[in-house]
Design brief:
- The protein is an all-alpha fold.
- The chain has one domain.
- It contains nine helices and no strands.
- Helix 3 packs antiparallel against helix 7 and helix 5 crosses helix 8.
- The longest helix is centred in the last third of the chain and has 37 residues.
- It is globular and about 65 Å long.
């Protein structure tokens, strides 16, 4: 019945890590990233613009679809339904990136996407929600995280955008600014956006990072390390190119 896949109740098998329901969408998200990276530079200007607008529309539809599902099921609340977790915030920002071609948004979403959205997909909280394929929540989880990466890959392939060491440091500052703003929203609403007001009720990495508020500092250090890790391919490429140029000058 459609209500079984769109409503609050779901009686199917639970979601488990490394199951087919986990690995197949991971492969699908990665495959779309590769397709966008390979095909975008080869598209005609008209087709490239069509892809750009289609991805932007998909971001908006995904964002609004999640809100509509919560409203339809009586779940929407200012305490936990605003797009203020990094991944939920990244979806409308991805639409804005595609519409405005903002290099600043690209830098933010590169680090938030590849350091944050990928981690979320590797360890989905679908186990805590209780929803699995083919429920709407399952689909919205994978597409909302995937579209962040697809927008970033498109911007790199279509416009030549790339991160830099300076942008890494800028995104660290922007992220900390976002934490302060979200902390204020949590205080005003009683929410727990970005999990900085308290730890979530289900098991997460935060359980190993100490009590509140100290785990926030630990989480920032882990985030910085993750930012550096996802920048590493560019750092290695730049180092290799510089070494190659140095060798050519010697010759």
């Amino acid at each position: 019945m459609p209500s079984d896949y769109l409503g609050l109740s779901y009686d199917g098998p639970p979601f488990t890590l490394l199951s087919a329901q986990h690995l197949l969408p991971l492969l699908a998200v990665a495959a779309v990233c590769v397709l966008i990276a390979v095909l975008t530079p080869r598209l005609s200007p008209w087709a490239r613009e069509a892809l750009r607008w289609a991805l932007a529309a998909f971001c908006v539809a995904n964002w609004l679809g999640w809100d509509l599902w919560q409203l339809a099921n009586g779940l929407w609340s200012v305490r936990y339904s605003l797009p203020l977790h990094l991944c939920t915030l990244s979806v409308p920002l991805a639409a804005a990136l595609l519409l405005t071609r903002s290099s600043t948004l690209y830098q933010v979403l590169y680090f938030w996407g590849f350091a944050g959205a990928t981690q979320a997909m590797l360890t989905p909280d679908l186990q805590a929600s209780g929803y699995n394929f083919p429920h709407f929540v399952y689909w919205i989880f994978w597409t909302s995280h995937g579209v962040i990466l697809w927008a970033v890959v498109f911007a790199a392939a279509a416009w030549g955008y790339r991160p830099t060491w300076r942008s890494l440091l800028s995104v660290v500052l922007i992220t900390n600014g976002a934490l302060i703003a979200v902390g204020l929203v949590n205080w005003l609403t009683g929410g727990n956006y970005m999990f900085i007001a308290r730890k979530p009720d289900y098991p997460t990495l935060l359980d190993y990072l100490g009590p509140w508020p100290w785990y926030i500092i630990s989480l920032q250090l882990i985030g910085l390390a993750a930012f550096a890790l996802v920048y590493l391919p560019y750092a290695i490429r730049d180092w290799l190119e510089a070494a190659h140029i140095g060798e050519r000058r010697k010759v």
